[in-house]
Design a protein that fits this description.
Keywords: ATP-binding, Cell inner membrane, Cell membrane, Cytoplasm, Membrane, Nucleotide-binding, Protein transport, Translocase, Translocation, Transport. InterPro entries: Helicase_ATP-bd, P-loop_NTPase, SecA, SecA_CS, SecA_DEAD, SecA_motor_DEAD, SecA_preprotein_X-link_dom, SecA_SF2_C. The chain is an alpha/beta fold and 552 residues long. A hairpin with a 2-residue loop joins β11 and β12. The longest helix has 31 residues. α2 packs across α4 and α11 packs across α13. The protein contains 20 helices and 19 strands.
Length: 552
Amino acid sequence: MPGVVDKVIELFLGSKHEREMKRLAPLVAAINAREPEVQKQSDEQLKARIAAIRQEIQNAIYPLPENAIERRKHVQAVLDQYLVEVFAIVREAARRTLNMRHFDVQLIGGIVLHEGKIAEMKTGEGKTLVATLPVVLNALSGRGVHVVTVNDYLARRDAEWMGTIYKFLGLTVGCIQNQMGDAERQEAYRADITYGTNNEFGFDYLRDNMKFELEAMVQRGHVYAIVDEVDSILIDEARTPLIISGPSELSVDLYYQVDRIIPKLVRGEEIRDKYGNKSTTGDYVVDEKAHTATLTEEGVDKLESWLKLDNMYAPENYHLVHYVENALKAHVLYKRDREYVVRDGQVVIVDEFTGRLMFGRRYSEGLHQAIEAKEGVKVQQESITYATITLQNYFRMYHKLAGMTGTAATEAEEFYKIYGLDVVVIPTHRPMIRQDLDDLIYKTEEGKFRAVAKDIEENYRKGRPVLVGTTSIEKSERLSQLLARRGVPHQVLNAKHHEKEAMIVAQAGRPGAVTVATNMAGRGTDIILGGNLAGLDISQEQWQKDHDLVVS
């Protein structure tokens, strides 16, 4: 009865997270004790000490043990010896360069990340700054550290922003961006610290595996990665395959032919009689939960008649099944402005997790071509897969993996089962005063949207800022129409311009501001109640009034 045992342990020793805090408290005290000594040193002395520690660490870890488990233990043990001093130096470097000093809870977060665990830190607790502590310590091994973010803008912003600390200490920093060539990527990966998105790291690995010469490869191994928004990348998108493909020689004419007959099919449903026996009506049935559409016998008969076939499933006709199934999916499962949009005569996928447009990405195995035929745009040639990997399998290659997020405890079991990662809840620097209300469930989506719009209007009339998260472009535009009818001015972020989004979301805390965003728009931006003074043309006194108004 593990549940009872856990409760007994909690009663006498406190919760798992409380025990973790007690375990880490002496390390935090030791780092704080070092602070006066570190503050006395000049900039040059701090840089020289980091260079000396780097040499000491590299002398101690090489030669590396051949056994992978022993190697990880050995490297971790060496780095642990320098944790207190390096963290104290990084904290001082942050104070001198950015005028930001790590709080004690941020030191705890840094230790947790160094130990290869997931730090759950609430929004606004400074995850970006926390990462600098383990990043510097692990970079001193000379084997490279990867910091993984959710979009190119955040990767570039954080590399430049936190790069001030790294460069102050004599470390090099690189940033992978979507449009870079191989030479620039090689240079970025050779740096002590490399920032980039999960997709860029994954695709670089696939491209490296297709190269014929070692010198042409851009990555130099997978030693240590810190993943920001770890729940989104390692759980939500874990099974999403990254695919490198090229065009095949198959004709696209059949896509147009099949597309013309699919709309004639009639949707049916699966029914059971009183004895539990299943039967179907119509030409096809849809399982929304499994995201599948299946032809009924009646549907198959109709298609065989229209296509002038004796047996659609005969070996000589089986290639047609591929076209029919994709055309059916395209018409009944994939909706415009939900799964994809049409831009400049092209079908562009909408990322289901971020709401962002995925230019250059295509559905595989003929589905994209079927959607192009449905939308009446030019059908591109079908593609052949050359290389593929899931994000889950890619990140499991790292010797040490860590992550940060605001919500990980709910998926703690999954993190441990799949990646062997423990989740540690980091306390907030100040007590939480936010109220989290219970969910409201509505019978219909229409009823839910009306209630949301009414709630937004009431808060807007009171001068309260409102930030609304939606799961798709379609839903954000639907809500926007409802708000417009109610005369509520608002901003809609459809996840197309990261930089613009970040600026708008930064001001989402202004009095009366209403911001409707897809679920990842502006992620990584600190929303300050009253608005971000740096982006506003108002005085400090006026900002303070706005801040007090919102907080009240």
